[in-house]
Amino acid sequence: MKTILITGATGDVGTHLARELAGKYKLRLSDKRPMKPAKGQTFVKADVSKMADALRITKGVDAVVHLGGYSVEGPWEAILQANIVGCYNVFEAARRNGVKRIVFPTSNHAVGFYRRDRTIDHRIYPRPDSRYGVSKVFGEALGSLYADKYGMEFFMIRIGNVNPVPIDKRRLAIWISPRDIAQLVSIGIEHPEVKFEIVYGVSRNKRSWYDNANAYRLGYQPQDDSERYADEVLRNEKPGDPTAELYQGGIFVVAEDVPNPAAPKKAPKRSKGKKK
Ligand code: 15L
Questions:
Q1: Measured in angstroms, how far is the CA atom of residue 96 from the centroid of ligand 1?
Q2: What is the DSSP string of 58-124?
Q3: Is 132 in the active site?
Q4: Per-residue pLDDT tens over the stretch 182-237
Q5: Hey, whose CA ends up nearest to atom 8 of ligand 1?
């Protein structure tokens, strides 16, 4: 049985994966926050923004699923340490320890500035919607470098939103169920021909914005479709930010502190002068 390291194991995605992949792999779970591993799994506390920790946890595993990091938009310093330095350390530590295969959950936010009326595939040029999205593009680029230069193998999953059920209109397009993400991660660990692949981490959603042909080519057969939840989700949907609603990344595209050039142009105000 293969030994798989999952970093960021206390997060939502890590928790779903540890449950779904139990029994299939020997799981070494890791995070900087403590957790109690299930029977048959081990836990190693580590902060991957420190190279020594990254080296310690990647030793002796067959593959790494690197979930660890800042998982939403955040301050630059936090993103830099957790997602840029942390990602570099994990890929480099894996290389030094002779671990070839890495599954990297990148994000829909690496391409979040594409509009919702477009269908995009794995070959599209990234359009990150946030500092967080940029950090995911960094991970994709670093993986590409390590694949070409060192012969390592990378399976990049641009994850939509992992949840037992889709939670709003945007997530109807990008939702992935826990069992579907587990299937994709298993393909990423097992597929013999992976050198560098990008796929979308979404279920077989009728409303998807992605052409996920690359995942299907590699054997992905999603079991779920958000459509069965659509009526209920849409019934409860509240009107959102009009700019966010144009873009796949949703609220991540909205600038926090400066005027946003992506915002729809407002009609010019009528002057209050006297009518002629
Ligand atoms: C992500 O990449 C995040 O990790 C997750 O927390 C959600 O925000 C998700 O995207 C999403 O877009 O719903």
A1: 31
A2: HTT-SEEEE--S--S---HHHHIIIIIIHHHHHHHHHHHTT--EEEEEEEGGGSTTSBTT--B-TTS
A3: yes
A4: 999 999 999 999 999 999 999 999 999 999 999 999 999 999 999 999 999 999 99
A5: 72
Whole-number Å distance between alpha carbons of 238 and 27: 40
Summarize the chain as % helix, strand, coil (round to 5): 35, 20, 45
Closest ligand 1 atom, CA of 249?
A: 12
Q: What token pair was written down for 29?
A: 């779970």
pTM over 0.90: yes
Higher per-residue pLDDT: 274 or 121: 121
Strand pairing class (196-201; 26-31): unpaired
* Residue found by looking up tokens 């298993």 in the block: 186
Find tokens 């105000």 and name the residue. Answer: 269
> Sheet holding 63-66: strands in order across?
42-45, 26-31, 3-7, 63-66, 101-107, 153-159, 196-201
108: Cβ below 6 Å to ligand 1?
A: yes
Query: Rounded to a whole number, what is the largest CA-CA distance in the chain?
Result: 84
Give me the count of residues in the chain.
276
Cα 73 from Cα 147, distance rounded (Å): 27
- The residue assigned the tokens 């692949």 is 197
- Centre a 10 Å sphere on the Cβ of residue 232 and count the other Cβ atoms it contains: 11
Residues 21 and 27 sit within 8 Å (Cβ to Cβ): yes
